[in-house]
Amino acid sequence: MGLILGIETSCDDSAAAVVDENFTIHSSVIESSLAEHSSFGGVVPELAGRAHLRTLPGVVERALRDAGLSTTAPAIDAIAVTQGPGLVGSLLVGLSAAKAYAAAFDVPLVGVNHLEGHLFAPLLEAPDLTWPLLTVLVSGGHSLLVHHESPGVFHVLGGTIDDAAGEAFDKVARWLDLGYPGGPVIDRLAESGDPKSLPLPISMPGDNYDLSFSGLKTAVVRGAQKHPELSDADIAASFQRALTEQIMRKVKRALSATNYGGVALGGGVAANSQLRSAMAEAAAAAGVTCHLPARSMCTDNAAMIAAAGWHRLRHDGPSSLALAPRPSWPLEELAS
Ligand code: KG4
Ligand code: ZN
User: Which domains are delineated in the chain?
Assistant: First the structure.
């Protein structure tokens, strides 16, 4: 059976995984440097790059060992590595390591778009997906609605025209002095707040599938200043409700326009409890399957990179060893 070693270093997670051609995960190891960044209120690129240099070799070794493979001459068929988008210094560490392993193990290398990796995450958990899939990809860096026709065949329906959803969570949390990353704290706080306490606009940029979160963030700050009597929990709940509502309006529009087989969530914000239940409700109302991957599959991992690597290898063949990082690499460029 064919095995691919996936390597992911686009942001703060050093990750490696071994995945076979049927998308069964044989191992998946993730080491995050997030704790080093929390006091700075965001990921510090220089620190992230150095952390990858320190941790990636050990992470790759553990992924090979966990899959029952030799760490010096593993029986793998290829190496998939995140080529972009992401932090250039972090991508460089992963790419350089992947090239060295490919040469040492004498196997082909394939460069993968990180966002395409996220699109493959649901396939790792449920290989029997009902197609086409409407995928909502919401993370700290991206917010996209994607029509995924069949594995690797997709087009982007719309995306944020300003901040990403996770960025909005982080900015509101920073303003409330709740620390970084803000999403998990706001999610927890919102449980005890009144989502109707602060009326907020639901931005609807255009008659399309685009999203916008920058105005919402400003409205939250202005509203909170005007209503000092509101608790952090009330503000968190109101903000989370407005953000979820905006995403769900676009999701419902897509579900009524196209005969989807299922919906899927991906990216760090896919861990949000309100968004998860809203997606499940919308899917049930539309009579389609809802795929809510485990948190470890929503956030950055190398198994999804390995899975997308299988597709790219079959579709485009191996990449050259001269593969360069692509810090900015819109998913639209890969659309079919
Ligand atoms: O995908 P991810 O781990 O990293 C990238 O951005 O690539 O996503 C991180 C983002 C952060 O903005 C974080 O605040 C947000 O995901 N996040 C959440 C939750 N958990 C993480 N946002 C809302 N609710 C959550 N429970
Ligand atoms: Zn990601």
Answer: 3-118+297-334 (3.30.420.40), 131-287 (3.30.420.40)
